[in-house]
Amino acid sequence: MNFNILTIFPDLFDTLDHGVIGKAKNNGSFSINLHDIRKHAVNKHGQIDGKPYGRLMSRISPFTKKSLEDIPKNKIGKVIYLSPQGKPLNNIKAKELSTEKSITFICGRYEGIDQRFIDKYVDEEISIGDFIISGGELAALCSIDAIVRHIPGVLGNDDSSESDTFSNGLLKGPQYSRPEIFDEMEVPEILLSGNHEKIKEWKELKSLEATINRRPDLLNNVKLTKKQRKLLEDLTSQRIL
Ligand SMILES: C[S@@+](CC[C@H](N)C(=O)[O-])C[C@H]1O[C@@H](n2cnc3c(N)ncnc32)[C@H](O)[C@@H]1O
Asked: Between the chain's N and C termini, which has fewer beta carbons within 10 Å?
């Protein structure tokens, strides 16, 4: 998978050289092509802001267009503008985008990108949440990380995005690892029982418990199994009592 990034801060993307994502990048599971929009700025200071209409507005659009033209047409793929007005990124969307061959991310700055550029060149707008950050770079980084986790092999053999929170529409329950006693607190007994069936059921229960307590909205969009429905009924009746 190939990502083209149009940005005025290409250095920020060094973040992708670390950890499991860095390893996947080194292995060639995905590649990053950075395009510095400032390269096309007209004055010697590399200035790309201005105030043509309204408040300080990014004059980024003509330069962004030039940066887009730097990419061979067959490598552009889906053009996504990171934007607080976009559709929220979630796990389903990240998984869907992981099947694209190429994605070109446009990172906005200042007041954003001229609507005419969006209308003509952007296929999709994506938001990473209901808050404002200062530029699209961090949003692109979050998106790339979330997307490439779904590329087969990126997480290694032992781990899988299929066991992550949201993979089945629910939150994952609490996690425990050695030592058995930490600061005088014990690991839940069931996890030491060796009874895999019971442990699986306990994990399912804890996952539902976390979801109902913290993100009950998720339950509106998930198709629960018969067993999960029964566990949820038990949990809900316990909460009412
Ligand atoms: C300071 S923001 C502009 C916000 C604009 N004034 C508004 O109220 O919508 C500059 C850039 O950061 C990026 N950005 C900010 N918040 C974002 C979010 N929640 N998701 C994705 N990108 C975001 C966008 O690329 C945006 O063009």
From this structure: C
Give residue 46's pLDDT. 62
Taking CA atoms only, the protein residue closest to ligand 1 atom 5 is 111
Whether omega before 84 lies within 30 degrees of 0, making that bond cis, reads no
- By most ligand atoms within 8 Å of CB, the mutation choice from 55, 132, 134, 145 for ligand 1 is 132
* Closest ligand 1 atom to 85 CA: 9
Largest distance between two CA atoms of the chain: 70
Q: Which of 70, 100, 164, 204 is catalytic?
A: 164
Instruction: Give distance in angstroms: CA of 32 to centre of ligand 1.
Output: 22
> What pLDDT shows up at residue 63?
80
Residue 217 falls in the annotated catalytic set: no
Kindly give the residue spans of alpha helices, DSSP state H, lying in 7-153: 19-26, 60-70, 73-76, 91-97, 115-121, 136-148
Report pLDDT for 77: 98
| Whether pLDDT at 45 is above 50 | yes
pTM of the entire predicted model: 0.90
SS (H, E, C) 64-83: HHHHHHHCCHHHHCEEEEEE
Mean pLDDT across 25-47: 85
Of the candidates 164, 131, 125, 208, the one whose C-alpha atom is nearest the C-alpha of residue 20 is 164
Residue 84 falls in the annotated catalytic set: yes
Domains defined for the chain, CATH in brackets: 2-148 (3.40.1280.10), 165-240 (1.10.1270.20)
